[in-house]
């Protein structure tokens, strides 16, 4: 995994990172809670339970996943979970804290992953919530929908579908 932007690197996740990961997860759900009137403590409790459920789900479904903290200039800013399969490169999760979004960081990381997949001549697959703002990043990079599963779109990028603009 290589990102073009200077100062970005990926580090192994350790037990003390759980608080950061929980807060990151909560930040990715803020757009969903914009219209709710839940008390703050109920919202935090719900998000904590959802985070733990997601973590368990990922561990069971992708036991060999590569899970990393995204670091920019020695500051933890996100997470990247990948599963390298024979038939594809699967992005399980790519999240950035809101203050680091819309700066091209996610684009740089995604382009790096697309380059890796292109070299291996494998598609990149992922699922994203259909109303998530992150969906636009993938559509801009020529991902196409391959299905709808509940609130999630399955998206796929094929290396022969377009050339990378890097």
From TrEMBL:
- Entry's Gene3D superfamilies? 3.40.630.30
For this protein, the record's SUPFAM superfamilies field holds: Acyl-CoA N-acyltransferases (Nat)
> Has the keyword Transferase been applied to this entry?
yes
Tell me which domain of life the UniProt entry assigns to the organism this sequence originates from. Answer: Bacteria
Keyword terms: Transferase
Record flagged with keyword Transferase = yes
N-acetyltransferase domain residues are 8-166
Q: Which GO terms describe its molecular function?
A: acyltransferase activity, transferring groups other than amino-acyl groups
Task: Spell out the coiled coil positions from the record.
Answer: none
Protein name per Swiss-Prot or TrEMBL: GNAT family N-acetyltransferase
Q: Which organism is it from?
A: Salinicola corii
